[in-house]
Amino acid sequence: MRCISFLLVYFSLAAWTYGQKSLAVEGTLREGTEAIPGAVVRLYPTEAIEISDDNGFFRFGKLTPGQYRLEVRLLGYKTYIDSLDLTNQPIRLDIRLEEEVSVLSREVVVIGRNTETVSGRLNDVSGTAIYASKKTELINVRNLNANLATNNTRQIYARIPGLNIWEYDRGGLQLGIGGRGLSPNRSSNFNIRQNGYDISADALGYPESYYTPSAEALNRIEIIRGAASLQYGPQFGGLVNFIMQEGPRTKLIEFTTRQTGGSFGLFNSFNSLGGTVAQGKLNYYTFFQYKRGDSWRPNSHYTQQNGYLHLAYDLTPKLKVTGEYTHMRYLAQQPGGLTDAQFAEDASVSVRARNWFQVDWNLVSLNLDYKISETTRLNWRNYTLQGGREAIGALTYINRPDFGVNRDYMTDRYNNLGSELRFIHQYNLFGQPDNTFLIGGRAYRGLTVRKQGDGNNGEGPDFEFLDSEPNKSSFCFPGTNLAFFAENIFRIGKNWSITPGARFEYINTKAEGYYFKVNKFIPNEKIYETRTNPRTFMLLGIGTSRKFGRNAEFYANISQNYRSINFNDIRVVNTNARVDPNLKDETGFNGDLGLRGTFRNWLYADISVFYLKYNDRIGSIFSTDSSYMTYRLRTNVSDSRNLGLELLLDGDILQALTQGKSKYKLSLYTSLSLIDARYINTKNTAIANKLVENVPPVLFRTGLSTGTPRFNLTYQFAFQTKQYSDATNTEVTPTAVDGAIPAFSVMDLSARYSWRLFTLSSGVNNLTDSRYFTRRADGYPGPGILPADKRNYYLTLQFKI
């Protein structure tokens, strides 16, 4: 009750202060009734610049009385100019932009002619980051017609070519994506961030993501692949950055509730509150989500709670402070894997009833943005993760029955702190404007406490050890990282740029603890172990970009990469997998060459080729022990090289046929990747020239969307070819841990209708009820084949006021 009373008083005071006089110019940009984001708004003579947000809103505050000139520019629209006389009252404008085919400056990249596009790319410079010459991709989640309640990865990432997706998580609790032939295992080859800060378990030694932001709370997803190491770390995959929604700038309060029901007991309740108060200085957004459900296989129940709070306050016109808190917790029962024979006979069965998984995640961030001048900005991010995960179950081979013996229990606790400072400055050089210099530094301390031992022989989620101490292993993995990076965009002429960069890394990972050596005829031996592995290295990269036509660009880049040994590679007891004690870090590089742009104002295209070189690649080799049981040996298999082509075409056919006059849309997209990934430079004939695991040579996804501003119908089709789960390209094994993953195709259908304050969404996932799988697991949540979902339905009712 105190909290409710406080909120009522707070919003009452905020509404009162908001109504007081303030010298400001603000407004909303529209095309018809639709808001227009991404427009460049200038106010003269102040030289201030604002970008209209997702609601088309912009605002200039702290103004003195006088004469002003407002100018609005956006690709595809006529330039809007208006003279303003600011006296003792704020000015509020409702501006309708008119379409025009014209060329605009390079300040903003707009994909398509309206606000309903899903695909896109990032600007050369955004905030305190440089993306020039890099392979960047953008997913506008707010424009997706998909099953957002379950974070349906196949639908959300359909327009990103080359992504291999693990589909086994029916509730969308964990994200498993890998690009360009890298493992999708909890997206560990990407640097996963939320609003610019790390959210994975431990960015140094255990970069796996157990937390996935709710798709219903996302504004967009930014993906920077290839040469992303210089600003975001040394990883091969690049960056995935989830940008959360903010409160609307034009409202004191906006409330949204989304209630979803679906097949297999799915119930999802998403409720958010947001707005802007305190005379436009304080923006807030918060949500709470509760989700539960089962699956088409028994032993699959899950529950999830997810909450988020965002507060951004403009202390001065130049200084903004942003604080965020994220909490996520879920409990999931895991039905385990299947053998090939079981999958072929009846994929709906479960032979494990005692496996459970639990995650508790807490993220806190504090962000300071300081605008030194119109050309110079400073950003300071500070963040912490306090969380953990627990797993208990029977990890024996899936072709062996679970006789009810003591289960294996593993627990991790994560205590991470990070701070990142960025400085960016734009300047003129030899008469060329918009040269941009970026320098930054990062300090990171991670601590993972990992324990493994016997749990009880029960059936429930009893997360505790049988003995006073774990009887298999107990380790602390402290890690320290210091990094410094710099990049510069050099403009050569009007349309050509070169962007070199460098990153210095100091990494020190440690292991302190004990494990038990298993003996047959004598008691197990307790062995204490301490490891320290400090290393320093420099990563270099360079890119170039040549712009031509209205909005087309040729780009090329190359950058070095590095990946350290994972904590899982140091000390984990798993009968299905073993680790080479001489395992070492991986090195290599990424190279891109591509052409992208918006053509005739209706088609967005991005076609590129890439080359990924991996030295001392860590992979899995199918092996047999002295008892003739098969297992995976995780080792430095050999060098590998991935060569591929990526293509995205996304356009509105009706806009092309009617020259932009149709009020309806008929959008068609095609995403295609062709990848040849092979092991090279090895004398091991078992893997020489073999295909790299987890790499489908062909990934093809396409979709068709039609409708009006009120109604939308979307069809999606996905196909991928056969791949393997180990480096020896084994076809089948008795334990199903290794083997082929056959080709498959799957379809989805979604519909959405909006009426006033209500939106009704529904759809069918796996329309033709295909039986397929994308993963063979050697441990949790398997081991064995993990079947993808069968046909299922969902229905969502949204109310927004």
TrEMBL record:
Q: Name one GO cellular component term.
A: cell outer membrane
Q: Which residues form the signal peptide?
A: none
State the membrane topology: Multi-pass membrane protein
One family name in Pfam for this protein: Plug
Record family assignment: Belongs to the TonB-dependent receptor family.
Q: By its UniProt entry, which InterPro entries does this protein fall under?
A: Beta-barrel_TonB (IPR000531), Beta-barrel_TonB_sf (IPR036942), CarboxyPept-like_regulatory (IPR008969), Plug_dom (IPR012910), Plug_dom_sf (IPR037066), TonB-dep_rcpt-like (IPR039426)
Residue ranges of domain TonB-dependent receptor-like beta-barrel in the record: 351-767
Is Transferase one of the keywords UniProt gives this record?
A: no
* Localisation per UniProt entry: Cell outer membrane
* Keywords annotated in UniProt: Cell outer membrane, Membrane, Receptor, TonB box, Transmembrane, Transmembrane beta strand, Transport
Protein name as it appears in the record: TonB-dependent receptor
- Domain (TonB-dependent receptor plug) ranges: 145-235
Report if keyword Glycosyltransferase is assigned. no
Primary localization class, coarse? membrane
What GO terms in the biological process aspect are recorded for it? siderophore-iron import into cell
